[in-house]
Each structure stands twice: as C-alpha cells, then as structure tokens.
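Chapter review: from sequence to fold.
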Amino acid sequence: MGLFNVAAGVYVPNQWKLSEGFEISTVNNRTRVRANISLERLGAFFLTAVCSLYEPVFLILESPCNEVKELELRKTEGEPYHTDVFYSELTTRDKLTAIFSKYEELLINDGFIRFGAASQKTKDEIFVAYYKVVHLLGTGPIPFEHVLERFEIPKTEHLVTAWDLFTQDSPGTKSRYEPETGDIYHMLECLIRNGTIFFAKTVEE
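The token string follows.
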C-alpha cells in the first residue's frame, strides 16, 4: 500500500501512520462508517458514493464564517468559532456531481471546508469532515458497502485518523487552499448568486 496523502490545506503530524480503512459504529440507531480515503482517490470515492444515493439528493457545504461575521458573533477569546451551513435545492445525482466536479480541487484540498451529499428519501449521507475524514451514514449493516468494496477499503476494528495523531506539542493545522478559480468564499458567493445553494444556518464549532 502506498503513502497515504492528505489535503494540501492540512498538516498532520506523523502522517505516515495513516492508511486507508474504515470502521463501523452505531449512532442513534443508524449505522455509521468512518473512513480514511487517500487524497488522490477522495474525489472519485465521493462521486461514486453520490451516484449510489436515491434521488432526490442535495449538497451540503459547511464553511467557517467570514472574518466580519465572526467578529460580530464571537465577543470574547474563550467563545467558540462559528460555521455557516449551506444546502442545495433537491436535485438529481447528475447535477450534484457536476457541481462537485467543478469545484473538486478546492473542496478536497481546502482545510476549512466540509462537504457532503444526502438522499432526501432514505437519509443516507456521505460527509467529508475536517482533515477529510469521511463519514457514511445509512440504515444497512454497512452503509455504502459496495463503494467501499469497489475502492478496496479494508475494514478495521480501530481506525487511526488524523485526530489520533495530534498532541499538545504537535497539533494538526488547517489552512486555506486557493486555486486560480478562487477560495471557498468566492465559491460560496458564486453558488449562492446562481441559485445553486442557499444559506441554512449558523452553528457553533
């Protein structure tokens, strides 16, 4: 197995300890899979998972509030930071994958953006969280099992993720990734302006 690659916008100490794999747990009577997918395969994995969702589907984007909004919300140093949550309208798999493909480089590499997709009918969901740890939610014994099998992701009893490698002396870090097409805030502005996504809520980190 080759080196596990992380996003350009994150730093993970002892990155060599990471490998592809998944573990299973139960959350609120639903099965959850948590997985490591190496960066060079993350986009293809996400697209394949989306193509397995029942329509209609919707896109999920979560981004830190911009600096102006954060200064308004966070009054003291000890208060939590805030995240803006955006959803797309209900759509088809093809339209959702087209949106993702347009911004794939930014989405898989930026350290701050989190993204996902879900079925409105079954509530099955794929969500790529901080440090690009992948979460798969569903009702079957192993959600998205056929996708995991197709990418030959091995099952493990205890998945070592980036979060397990952070220490007080050597924490992980996140940073922005800005290709020529613009950063995450430019992406969000474009998607809102053309009616692809809408603002849903602001939540604490």
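Two observations follow directly from the output. The chain has a mean pLDDT of 94. The CA atoms of residues 187 and 193 lie 10 Å apart.
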